[in-house]
Amino acid sequence: TEHIYAEGDERDSNVIEVFIRRLRKKLDPDNQLNPIETLRGRGYRWSLQRSRS
User: Fold this and answer.
1) Residue range 1-53, pLDDT digits in tens
2) H helices within 1-53, ranges in order?
3) Distance between CA atoms of 34 and 24, rounded to whole angstroms?
4) In this structure, are residues 28 and 22 in contact, taking their beta carbons and an 8 Å threshold?
5) CA nearest to 32, candidates 24, 22, 21, 40
6) 44 with 37: CB under 8 angstroms?
7) How far apart are CA 3 and CA 5, in angstroms?
8) How many CB atoms lie within 10 A of CB 27?
9) How far is it, in rounded angstroms, from Cα 32 to Cα 4?
């Protein structure tokens, strides 16, 4: 977002949160798998378990 706003401007961007929410909805529309885990203060982690067949 640095290229959109001047460096001195105060901004509260939630671009990443919006992207992750949309990605979660596309990957898991029924909200059953929860493939992306939120790590508070650190980021996100792929946490989908593999099925053994």
Assistant:
1) 456 656 655 556 789 999 999 999 999 999 998 899 999 999 999 987 776 66
2) 15-27
3) 7
4) no
5) 24
6) yes
7) 6
8) 13
9) 36
